[in-house]
Design brief:
- By secondary structure, the protein is α+β, with helices and mostly antiparallel strands.
- The chain has 2 domains: 154 residues, 3-Layer(aba) Sandwich (Beta-lactamase), CATH 3.40.710.10; 98 residues, Beta-lactamase.
- 38% of the residues lie in helices and 23% in strands.
Length: 288
């Protein structure tokens, strides 16, 4: 994991006397972020954001972010989309999976839909069927290749992301998002480009925000949830090219992951997670 490798690297530098390098530690704890979470009724949370442009990492709750794995819940649907496209189980994002006829509490799941809509509404029936079509041997191969979390699919290929067998840390989620953004995962550029487009949630004149939410109930509990938000932000920056004198737009990426525990329906609402994210981005002066 990034945190562990960075800590070990810094220790080695200090052992060899490179004190100036040790002083340039680029991992920063931001304890004040706990106030933001507490204002939303959340006591157990972690958050991590990586500023790629300055190679800086900021975090809240290092032990939870870097060492504690949790079920990925619906954030794993990003991974399932990648595998479905790469294996041609889905020729493209227009693959329609018919509604199975079961009536779900979330009315938006009760219809035929393609992958783009399914990821947008986080359709559980769509992705359970996609996982079955991929099959456990193929999915296990890709989970092992990517080294996604603990790489344990268990016995249920269509529920491994919500039954607490497959687990991942927030730090590992950040690493996964960074590789996806830069087309560094072991999938084709086409596959990664399509999936990134599926994750786009906000597109303004100043930024593009990509993310996936996830919510899973802990086994053996009536109503205790692990809640996720993972993704990346592209800040748009216009500047004049020195040679051509023309205006150019550059993008500055930031990669993030948060998770927390709750038993409250209102606290776990996706809009609440996005609100927390934007408060943190404003605190960092990334958003204004």
């Amino acid at each position: 994991m990034y945190f562990r490798s960075m800590k070990n690297w810094l220790v080695l530098l200090c052992m060899f006397g490179f004190m100036s390098s040790c002083e340039r530690n680029n991992i920063h704890e931001v304890k004040d972020w706990s106030t933001i979470f507490k204002a939303h009724g959340i006591d157990s949370a972690c958050f991590e954001i990586r500023d790629h442009n300055h190679e800086e990492m900021y975090y809240l709750n290092l032990s939870r972010a870097g060492e504690q794995r949790f079920m990925p819940a619906s954030t794993f649907k990003v991974f399932l989309s990648l595998v479905g496209l790469e294996t041609n189980v889905a020729l493209d994002e227009k693959l329609v999976i018919p509604w199975n006829g079961e009536v779900y509490a979330r009315a938006e799941w009760n219809k035929d839909m393609d992958m783009r809509e399914a990821l947008k509404v986080s359709s559980e029936p769509y992705y359970r069927e996609l996982a079955r079509r991929i099959g456990k041997p193929e999915l296990q191969k890709w989970v092992d290749t990517v080294k996604f979390g603990n790489m344990n699919l268990g016995d249920s290929v269509d529920r491994c992301w919500v039954n607490n067998t497959l687990q991942i840390t927030a730090d590992e989620q950040v690493g996964f998002m960074k590789k996806l953004y830069f087309d560094k995962l072991p999938f084709s550029q086409r596959t990664q480009r399509i999936v990134k487009s599926l994750m786009l949630q906000e597109d303004s004149t100043r930024f593009k925000l990509y993310y996936k939410t996830g919510t899973g109930i802990y086994p053996g509990t009536d109503k205790k949830y692990i809640v996720w938000l993972v993704g990346f932000l592209e800040m748009k920056e216009s500047q004049k090219n020195v040679e051509t004198k023309l205006e150019e737009t550059n993008f500055k990426p930031y990669f993030f992951a948060m998770n927390f525990d709750t038993d409250s329906d209102s606290i776990m609402a996706p809009s609440n997670r996005v609100a927390i994210l934007k408060e943190i981005l404003r605190e960092r002066k990334i958003l204004r």
